[in-house]
Backbone:
């Protein structure tokens, strides 16, 4: 399908980009890798007058790592580049795992870190060709007044399916958001609105420019597991990231957290503070974490593949498995962090 | 608004005037008549339009041509420039890894990138490298055998 007509502008700096975006007031869209946006354009789901191409801003293409400062990844770094970077593989295997869980080799070479975080929500009744959509009234996400996925719902239930977000949530990462009024750093959770219709909180003129991940603590480990029917084609029917830190001696947890994708309107973060405060054996803690995750997951019938009931049941299985694998990783990595 | 870009395709340099909404796939097929690159789903799912850009496999249907200024692109036509087949192509014939032929240009280029980065891949690595190239004739086993045989031929 041909792309609709639009203009393309190439700002030379982040400042210029923010200026352009705020001037266009929502009629412009940032294009990063383009894999998510161009599909939406081809399907006539979005019709921006202008695309703002940020590929030429060299500051957005950098990966930096220091032992004290942690990892800083520019928004335009590709998933392939991220997963292949020695410091990422060595210190944040969870992040490399999540990047390699996205699509196929081609999409990983094109898709970017910032683009993956800012990808739109998906729904069987929305992410379709115009001809297919003709047979139904426009849904909330299309500007209409009905949700075909959850009958009678008063809001949009499109599902967030990004793979990097859960990994970054459990790694306690922050995002640098640039806007017309300057930069600010927010926790990853601060990006997401929990609204299926507009999943990111960014206002006109704002864009994600950098991802900052703190240095990994010693004896820590993290794993990302993704459930789908067809590897490389499907969005996650369920994605689970777990990260934990073991105490210096023994097998108790200093910290544990879990995050989910593909089961809600935004990524779901489940912190372990409350569960850890109640104390208990590691297996009891993991059990409670899996129950908390289960309670917070609401997969619905708006995708191909397994039933919502099965996907929800599998939340517990995947959380336990991810936590168990994270323990093994933490033990094998020892004091290396 | 049209813009003039320079494309390096298969070693040749082309100066082209392209619109912002033209995909690289359409430019390759319609402007340069390089129809070896196939249009399958045109939506980033099937991998038939795979080309190599600056050493990595990408989907040309999801790439705006206007963003490819000064990029080095290899299409399937560049795999056998003088008519002499690439070892991957020879292996594809020897192992009957071609049925309808629609996915063939795409997976050959995916495999070329794999062998450039990993001259001696494992069967699993081969499978992963072509996972983004759908073969609806489902001839995957033959394709895998052909790539492994080509790897052996290139670096015994």
Residues:
């Amino acid at each position: 399908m041909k792309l609709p007509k639009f203009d393309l502008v190439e700002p030379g700096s982040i400042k210029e980009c923010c200026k352009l975006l705020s001037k266009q007031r929502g009629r412009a869209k940032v294009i990063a890798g383009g894999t998510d946006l161009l599909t939406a354009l081809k399907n006539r789901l979005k019709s921006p007058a202008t695309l703002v191409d940020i590929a030429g801003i060299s500051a957005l293409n950098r990966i930096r790592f220091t032992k004290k400062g942690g990892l800083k990844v520019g928004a335009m770094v590709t998933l392939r580049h991220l997963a292949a970077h020695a410091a990422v593989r060595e210190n944040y295997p969870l992040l490399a795992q999540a990047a390699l869980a996205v699509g196929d080799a081609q999409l990983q070479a094109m898709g970017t870190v910032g683009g993956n975080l800012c990808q739109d929500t998906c729904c069987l009744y929305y992410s379709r060709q115009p001809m297919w959509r003709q047979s139904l009234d426009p849904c909330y996400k299309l500007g209409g007044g009905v949700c075909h996925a959850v009958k009678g719902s008063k809001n949009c239930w499109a599902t967030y399916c990004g793979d990097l977000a859960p990994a970054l949530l459990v790694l306690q990462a922050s995002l640098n958001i640039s806007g017309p009024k300057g930069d600010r750093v927010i926790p990853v959770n601060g990006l997401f609105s929990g609204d299926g219709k507009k999943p990111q909180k960014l206002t006109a003129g704002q864009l994600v420019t950098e991802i900052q991940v703190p240095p990994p603590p010693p004896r820590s480990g993290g794993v990302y597991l993704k459930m789908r029917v067809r590897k490389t084609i499907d969005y996650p029917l369920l994605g689970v990231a777990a990260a934990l830190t073991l105490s210096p001696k023994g097998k108790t947890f200093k910290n544990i957290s879990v995050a989910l994708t593909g089961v809600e309107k935004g990524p779901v973060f489940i912190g372990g503070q409350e569960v850890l405060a109640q104390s208990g054996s590691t297996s009891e803690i993991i059990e409670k974490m899996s129950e908390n995750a289960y309670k917070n997951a609401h997969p619905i019938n708006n995708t191909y593949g397994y039933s919502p009931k099965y996907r929800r049941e599998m939340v517990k299985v995947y959380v336990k498995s991810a936590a168990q694998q994270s323990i093994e990783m933490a033990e094998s990595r020892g004091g290396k962090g | 608004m049209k813009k003039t870009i320079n494309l390096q395709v298969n070693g040749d340099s082309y100066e082209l005037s392209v619109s912002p909404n033209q995909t690289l796939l359409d430019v390759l097929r319609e402007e340069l008549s390089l129809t070896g690159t196939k249009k399958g789903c045109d939506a980033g799912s099937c991998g038939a339009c795979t080309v190599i850009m600056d050493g990595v496999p990408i989907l040309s249907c999801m790439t705006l041509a206007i963003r490819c200024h000064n990029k080095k692109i290899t299409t399937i036509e560049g795999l056998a420039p003088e008519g002499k087949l690439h070892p991957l192509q020879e292996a594809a014939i020897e192992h009957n890894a071609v049925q309808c032929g629609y996915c063939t240009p795409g997976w050959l280029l995916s495999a070329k990138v794999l062998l450039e980065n990993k001259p001696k891949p494992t069967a699993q690595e081969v499978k992963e490298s072509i996972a983004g190239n759908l073969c609806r004739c489902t001839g995957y086993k033959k394709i895998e055998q052909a790539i492994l045989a080509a790897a052996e031929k290139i670096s015994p």
Summary: Chain B has a mean pLDDT of 96. Chain B has two domains: 3-78, 87-154. The helical segments of chain B are 24-31, 87-94, 104-117, 123-129, 140-154.
